[in-house]
Amino acid sequence: MAEAQLDASFAVSFRETFIASRRDKLYQLLKRGIARGEIPEETDFELFADLCYGPIWYRLLNGHASPDNHFVQTLLDYIL
């Protein structure tokens, strides 16, 4: 992520491979949740992904706390 801030061509590659693949996996999970009636059909996938991954990246980049299991579970509880 830090290198993507300094190198525009790396940023494109990073988004298209690393970031996009993870967002796609999350979208697949959201679609399954919608099919099971656990998540509203009108869920904004883009916003949901930002709300999930944003706090995790924040912790990783700032190093003030680890994104441990408790944090991730609490984050999901808030989002859902």
Note down, in words, how this protein is organized.
The protein is flat and about 40 Å long. Helices cover 78% and strands 0% of the residues. It is mainly α and 80 residues long. It has one domain (2-79): Tetracycline Repressor, domain 2 (Orthogonal Bundle). Residues 1-78 form the Tetracyclin repressor-like C-terminal domain. It comes from Paenibacillus artemisiicola. InterPro entries: Tet_transcr_reg_TetR-rel_C_sf, TetR_C.
Key descriptive features of the protein:
80 residues; mainly alpha; Tetracycline Repressor, domain 2; 4 helices; 78% helix; flat
Q: Would you report the number of β strands? A: 0
The termini sit apart by: 27 Å
What oligomeric state do these chains adopt? single chain
Q: Judging by the overall fold, what is the CATH architecture?
A: Orthogonal Bundle
Overall shape: it is flat
- Rg result: 14 Å
Helix fraction, binned, reads over 70%
> What is the CATH superfamily label?
Tetracycline Repressor, domain 2
Q: Supply the number of structural domains.
A: 1
Q: What share of the residues does DSSP label as strand, in percent? A: under 5%
Number of DSSP helices?
4
Query: What structural class is derived from the secondary structure elements?
Result: mainly alpha
Q: SSE string, helix = H, strand = E?
A: HHHH
